[in-house]
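User: Run a structure prediction on this.
Assistant: Running it now.
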Amino acid sequence: MATAVVNCPKCLRPIDPPIGTNQGPAETTCPHCRGQMTLETFPRLRASEPSNSVEGRGLQAREGEAVCQFYPELQAETVCEECGCFLSRKASVEWSGRTLCLPCLHNLREQKGADAFSSRRSLPDNVGIALVVFLLPLTLFTGPYAIFYLLRHRKTPGSLVPRSRFRWWLALVLAILATTGWLVLFVIWIAMFFRAVTGS
């Protein structure tokens, strides 16, 4: 039987949970500070670890068994779905529904730029709005580029946090309005120039 120890929420000193707390909430008193508390524990708190378990990090490897790639003293319990190396519980990472080793997770996030593993993303709608709003005097050049950029990245995965497409459409409308404004202004200038030249 594993030793079950919890900490008192008042004095933070370890106490043994009373017998029977697995059956529901139990009133108890801290033997150190005499504080009253209600404990509710679950069977896992008193569950026995396998005899060859190493402090919850995995199973101790026995002779003839497959061992972890990174911790040879631990038994291999799974494999990395990216590179196929053997992993112990301590060395494996669950990410986006896949079991990976840490080097593969790093490669997927930092080098390969896999969408499911990225820690940050460039948002086309924010870029489009910045090109039009913050560079307003230069929208003769940034307006058309913003339209091209938004249309090119219209299917690019968006924010890691789900949100609507409103900002993308807002950025596109602003870019179109800025570009159209410059075109209208050029037409007016050309018309005024020809009127001045012809004297009509």
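The mean pLDDT is 78.
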